[in-house]
Amino acid sequence: MLGPVILAASRSDRMRRLISAAPVTKQVVDRFIPGETVDDVVPIVEDLTAGGLELTMDVVGEDITTPEQAAAARDAYLALVDRLAELELGERVEMSVKLSMFGQALEAGHELALANVRPVVEAAAAIGTTVTLDAEDHTTLDSMFAIHEELRKDFPQTGCVIQAYLFRTEADARRLAASGSRVRLVKGAYKEPAEVAYQRKHEIDKAYVRILRTLMEGEGYPMIGSHDPRLISIGQELARKAGRKLDEYEFQMLYGIRSDEHLRLAAEGHRMRVYTAYGTDWYGYFMRRLAEKPANLRFFARSMLTRG
User: Which candidate in 74, 118, 182, 184 is catalytic?
Assistant: First the structure.
């Protein structure tokens, strides 16, 4: 399987330098990451929302090694909130954050990440939107869920992400569904050991359906994070069986992948949210997109060969 190899490469400084230096890379990266600054992506945000779509915005970057870098990440999100307020798009655009960007892996990282993310959540609430805490590798999840629970005391609309390939996720889903939380379900994009995660696609897909059924039958707000046509159809059927209205769940897909499907679902009346990332530290995000789907890797390789 190529996925684990690509994920290993995402942590290699040598591969980072090699891929970043390739002339064609930026053109391919632009398919998934439409800009480096908030000003770059404002036209994209306006275009997508005008087309009936909603967004979740991610300022990419996870290699945080100092408290100062974590504070800079916080400030980047606060600047994004300010621009959304100017555009009056608070009700259409939320934000996704990785707690690693806010210092989670540093000394006293749990407290530091909570202190940095709280003002972002507060600012988001002030303009009528919210924040979703992205899931990272399994060693970070207890901290992430604890921060999520703490934030929801004051901001109950704060969301979180769960990953179908982890064995623990079915129990996490039952807890979150009962608490009425906003939950994005994804398959999972980190290399995890067999001791904690399913390794085969069919096992992950079956777990995804079981977990999604739990979320649909629960008291929360499910967010279906998938580009898989079969899982999208199953999600619609599970929502119907659970008696959910079209505004009681949503689909989420990545910017640059299956854009026609984004528009189709929105045209049918579904809430369709596009996960849109921007920033200069794009390498780790880009490599996970390649690892998630062979078609993305083929697209990149074909572009490299064509340009070569």
Answer: 184
